[in-house]
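Lab meeting tomorrow. Look over both lines:
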Amino acid sequence: MAKEGLGIVIGSVLSSVIMLVGSYFSPFIHIWVITGVIIAFTIFTIAFFRDPDRKPPGGDDNIISPADGKVIEIVEDNNNEYMRAPSRRISVFLNIFNVHVNRIPITGSVEYFHYQKGAFLKAYKAEASDVNEQTVIGVKAASGRRVLFKQIAGLIARRIVCDLREGHAVQAGERFGMIKFGSRVDIFVPMNVDIRVRVNEKVRGGETVLGVFNDEIQ
């Protein structure tokens, strides 16, 4: 269970128990209907805030997906504030049924952190990467390689949780936060990365290799 959801889950479970007890002694059918809705919401929150263990693949050259979801776009995109070189953007869309815990894509240290207030466009729109509310994190590996990734809020998801700040040492696959109730994560990688996923492919945060650094590619 993700720690960010403990309060919501505990509150939902207590509400369900109280309503079940009240329904048992109530002669009114509508109380049972309300109880059913609350129980359904409780089941949803427990599923939403699940936090399964993941085993990251080894290898310093691998770039691991920071989120569960579906790859919706792979494009060249140099409009970022950190990479300092041409880069590609891989966008992963999270629906409400995906695991929402986010994970670190490479081992290194957080060299850049920025929180941007913004709009709440539908997360699958291309312009959401630039204008939506988001947390932007840049990580630099000991080798000097860099990646940039964004937690992007969407139309419904308006609560970004991020435990990172500049100077933090991080490990590939490590948990660092979540986006509550569905949204999008973008990751920017250098052009010398061999992309290993395709558009519409489903990925798993902390396990799926999005790309592999290949210093021979320029």
